[in-house]
Amino acid sequence: MNTIKYLALPLLAVSLVMTGCANRKPTTDANVTTTPSSSVNTSGLSEDAALNAQNLAGASAKGVTEANKPYLAKRVVHFDYDSSDLSNEDYQTLQAHAQFLVANANSKIALTGHTDERGTREYNMALGERRAKAVQSYLITNGVNPGQLEAVSYGKEMPINAGHNEAAWKENRRVELNYEAVPPLLK
Question: What CDD domains does the entry give (predicted)?
Answer without folding.
Answer: OmpA_C-like
